[in-house]
Amino acid sequence: MAEYALGIFQHGKKLGIAIVQRTYRQKTMKLSQTISLQSDPADKDALANEINTLLKDVVNREKIKKARVSFGVDSSDLMWNNIDMPPVSIEDLRQIIQFEMDSHIPVDPENCTFDIQTYETIEGLTNRVTLFTVQKDIIESIREVASDAFLLLDSVTPVDTAISQLCNTKADESSKDKIIVIVCAKESETEILLTRNGRFIAHRKVSRDNPWESEMDQSESQTRQADAENKQVSLLEENIHIAMLMSNETPDKIAEIFCVGDVPEAEIHDLSNAMPNIQVKRLWIDDYIVPGTDFCQTAAT
Which helix (H) or strand (E) segment is 32 a member of? Predict the structure, then answer.
């Protein structure tokens, strides 16, 4: 008997859908497509209705029954940070974090759901874990979209996971156990992700208008920018170093840097000059949804 799994990702006015058909010891990609949405992303009701209609159409057209669905959550709907925990089992870690949740997130823990991912264990000393948190109303909204399309919500996953997996497949074999830096361009900001073996280490958002505005006041910001210009140091490099400091890592641990999406050529050029001993690669992606589509395929399998 065939079973189906769907991976869905919505970002702005783009919707990615992938379907995997499962039979005995076999998985077949049945569908993978990206759809341009007509609704304004700010109009949540209209957007949900349009997505419902599209999903119902896909389910009916492909004659899918009893499908489970994984939904990708964009970083704008997700909070995550790294914390040091005692060297205990994953089950005990979950209980400890549940008890201490109000000290780790800036919102009411009662209104959130969380998951953790261990990215480093120092035997007998500590577990370093990534804490992912999503507000329950976001989960409930996703659940309603799935339910209206007669689908069962199986999991909610960070889309950054797909971007990390995408870059890890392109990385050199020598990059194993080292840090891969992923620079993702968006409309008004750049995201810097640090990963090791596909595990998240640090995450930093940088305004494209003012790369320092989230870190300090305006006068200090102007001083830092002037210093960077005088030293001919790439602003991206400066922010990568800040992300490394946030994770207690050193620049010599960086194996490769991937620039994903519409990162300006001038910034990539400056970054390459500023960090000549590190490979800087571009992933030519016309639209940010493409890593999301990769997420869909990953989630559906």
Answer: strand 26-36
- Could you report the per-residue pLDDT of 207-250, keeping only the tens digit for each? 766 544 444 454 445 555 555 444 434 678 888 988 888 878 88
DSSP 213-271: TTTS-HHHHHHHHHHHHHTT--HHHHHHHHHHHHTT--GGGEEEEEEESS--HHHHHHH
Please state, in angstroms and rounded to a whole number, the distance separating the CA atoms of residues 35 and 40: 14
Q: Are 122 and 255 in contact (CB under 8 A)?
A: no
Assess contact for 129 and 139: CB atoms under 8 A: no
Residue 247 is which amino acid? S
The structure's pTM equals 0.73
Q: Backbone phi, then psi, for 254, in 5-degree steps?
A: -80, 125
- Rounded-to-integer distance, Cα 119 and Cα 97, Å: 16
State the greatest distance between any 2 C-alpha atoms of the chain, in Å, as a whole number.
Answer: 66
Q: Computed from CA positions of residues 161, 163, 167, 170, in that sequence, does the dihedral angle turn out positive or negative?
A: positive
pLDDT at 255: 92
Taking the alpha carbons of 267, 285, 117, 212 in that order, is the dihedral positive or negative? Answer: positive
> Token pair of 99, please?
């008890």
Cβ neighbours of residue 276 closer than 8 Å, sequence gap 6 or more: none
Closest CA to 113 of 156, 160, 68: 156
Phi and psi (nearest 5°) for 193? -115, 135
